[in-house]
Amino acid sequence: MEINVHELIIEKAHKHLLGGDFTAVELAEAVLKNAESKNKKMNAYLEFYDDVKDQAEEADQMFKKGTAGMLTGIPFAIKDCILVHGKTATASSKILEGYTATYDATAIKKLKKAGAVLLGRANMDEFAMGGSTENSSNGVTKNPHDLERVPGGSSGGSAAAVAMDGALAALGSDTGGSIRQPGSFCGVVGLKPTYGAVSRYGLMAMASSLDQIGPITKTVAGAEAVFDVISGHDKMDSTSVPEEVAEKCKKEKKKKYTIGVPADFVYAEGVDEDVIVNFKESLQYLKKLGHTIKEISLPNLKYSLAAYYVIMPAEASTNLARFDGVRFGLLEEGNNLLEDYEKTRGVGFGKEVRRRIMLGTYVLSSGYYDAYYNKAVAVRNVIQNDFKKAFKEADMIATPTSPVPAFKIGEKSGDPLSMYLADIFTVPANLAGVPAISVPSGTTVREGKKLPLGMQFFAPHFNEKMLFAIGKELEKK
Ligand code: GLN
Questions:
Q1: What is the pTM of this model?
Q2: Catalytic residue among 154, 184, 317, 438
């Protein structure tokens, strides 16, 4: 059977593989061929692995033995900050040039066990700091819907790889929106799981209390299939939540949901008009299907960005202290150890990373710790309580994923503050630890090009299934 990579989604590919219409080797070859040719323009992949065929052959063996599952033979792109044993991993930073991962991240181990085929590593903002992939030391990734625009970030390479039919799924990481926002910019699905649902073991830490690994796929069912495989308790991550605790949080399944909309937050100034129109249409659509739309109040959500941009750099500055030229990657030698550190870090880290290290070090320094870091942590608690209250009134909460559609390359890169403001709808989920999904909700036209828009849903802790249920309905719009 002729393989049409554009039409393939995980669910369909699985049926074809199971039915013997094509083999995993044939599928991997077809997707890889398309990925390699598109990548010349798109720069979504930093590298294609040299053992793709071997992996696919193993997947075919699993089909023969009858041990294949939904992800067996499915081609994946992997964000450059998730460790794959024996492969280069740089988090798109010069400081990790030449670094080879010495073990598999737990999420990778689980994908491998499921028979997934890892095609290569995907571009990203350096150390996941950014919302456009422009902070990569490997050059920007292009948005497959308009080459003049960014794919979003920081998992821009992962989202573009899926959107350009260069993978059927990708892994990204999300600290403040880095799976969902590129998902919405590229017209694909992105899930940030509940904090503690997916092991962070083998994910290069950005801000440890916010980071989660999650899937980027073409469909909601695809995201669900990946989540089901990569989630679960892992003793290698002390913040991973035991299954019995997760189980207790799960609400019973409903046919019709009450969807809360924090109206004063969503309809605030600065949100693009087309985004608002599309969001309202999407709500109308869900209402017609029988769901209830209810205005709710999350009064402290407006402080999310301020809290995030204190907590995140504080944790990042601490996590990045380990890159000193001695332990990993690059070394720029000076006359003594201190000079080695300074030179290596000066040359190895890009501008945005240095900005956040300085910011983080500042808010953690004695004298400022209480004024900034402790205040931000207090605000975070207040936001968590807002969510708790809101989930008493509504089953889930909806907002647009991003206040704007994909912006032009260079449009915001000189203005970090305007880049940070674009994270307004995504950071609350990370601060509260709740799961959130971005689902394609329509398009808007800019300069003759159709640009995707995304709608975001938040659910209570460990209620990803709720997000999949509503996402599958919206997807039909
Ligand atoms: N854009 C956000 C930031 O720059 C989110 C990053 C992320 O989720 N990794 O911090």
A1: 0.98
A2: 154
| Mean pLDDT, contiguous 10-residue spans, the chain (477 residues) | 95 98 98 98 98 98 98 98 98 95 98 98 98 98 98 98 98 98 98 98 98 98 98 98 96 95 93 97 98 97 97 98 90 94 95 97 94 97 98 98 98 93 97 98 97 98 98 95
Ligand 1: residue of 129, 134, 351 to mutate (most ligand atoms within 8 A of CB) is: 129
125 Cα to the center of ligand 1, angstroms: 9
C-beta of residue 138 within 8 angstroms of C-beta of residue 104: no
Q: What is the pLDDT of residue 329?
A: 85
Question: In the beta sheet, which residues pair with residue 455?
Answer: 400, 439
Concerning whether 178 is annotated as a catalytic residue, the answer is yes
- Known catalytic residue: 155? no
Distance CA 21, CA 23 (A): 7
Answer for the pair 451, 445: CB distance below 8 angstroms, yes or no. yes
Q: How far is CA 312 from CA 183, 339, 392, in A?
A: 21, 27, 29
Decide: 423 in ligand 1 pocket, CB within 6 A: yes
178, 282, 413, 441: which one is catalytic? Answer: 178
Ligand 1 atom closest to residue 130's alpha carbon, by position in its atom list = 4
* Pairwise CA distance, residues 156 & 182, whole Å: 5
Distance CA 108, CA 110 (A): 5
Is 249 within 8 Å of 243 (Cβ atoms)?
no
Alpha-carbon span 459 to 469, nearest angstrom: 11
**Best residue among 407, 413, 423, 425 to mutate for probing ligand 1, ranked by most atoms within 8 Å of CB:** 423
Q: Is 313 in the pocket of ligand 1 (CB under 6 A)?
A: no
Report the CATH number of the 5-247 domain: 3.90.1300.10
Q: What is the pLDDT of residue 327?
A: 86
Question: In this predicted structure, what is the pLDDT of residue 68?
Answer: 98
Sheet with 396-400: list strands edge to edge: 45-48, 117-122, 75-79, 169-174, 212-217, 189-192, 436-446, 449-458, 396-400, 258-262, 292-296
Domain boundaries, the chain: 5-247
pLDDT at residue 328 in the model: 86
174 within 8 A of 206, measured Cβ to Cβ:
no
The residue count for the chain: 477
CA-to-CA distance for 179 and 338, rounded, in angstroms?
Answer: 37
